[in-house]
Amino acid sequence: xxxxxxxxxxxxxxxxxxxxxxxxxxxxxxxxxxxxxxxxxxxxxxxxxxxxxxxxxxxxxxxxxxxxxxxxxxxxxxxxxxxxxxxxxxxxxxxxxxxxxxxxxxxxxxxxxx
Amino acid sequence: xxxxxxxxxxxxxxxxxxxxxxxxxxxxxxxxxxxxxxxxxxxxxxxxxxxxxxxxxxxxxxxxxxxxxxxxxxxxxxxxxxxxxxxxxxxxxxxxxxxxxxxxxxxxxxx
Lengths: 114, 111
Hints:
heterodimer; A: mainly beta; seven-stranded mixed sheet; four-stranded antiparallel sheet; 11 strands; 0% helix; B: mainly beta; six-stranded mixed sheet; 12 strands; 50% strand
């Protein structure tokens, strides 16, 4: 157990729908990062939050949004889902706002869009 | 921009063979370098890291040396086991906020 908790582990939904993925960071960590892992794109950075504020944005689609709440858990919202959004979505956390020390990953949410 | 290039897999070895997975990078400044491992059905786990030139990271028999002159961070292990079968990712953290990952290299170790 890495200490980073992601729910749900698996999600199957239809095209056009909206889903919410949840992440609880490791105790004491203030930064949360979201990544998408697909077979053709590898690991793609989506977005980072630090202590409730958006800190960095990567290749995140406009249909996707995220937020970090006062208790530091984070949610990634995916809307108007397409078949191509099927992937593993990972959350990671770190204590500092930068990644120079690395970060700790959760076990991921596997999203299947049918 | 910053990028990481890893050797393509799969790499198939017999148990107790020597392992090398090549990793080279492009980055401005002096990034930290990492190797992560992903076992089937799991998230990524930090295997080792190095934060400055000539540092050697090591863990569980794996090691990698930060070579600034060749912009490389090759992963090595002297004797692999079946339990080492996994996907290995090289990554870097420049002065910015996030890790940039290579494409991953699948290692398969046969008994």
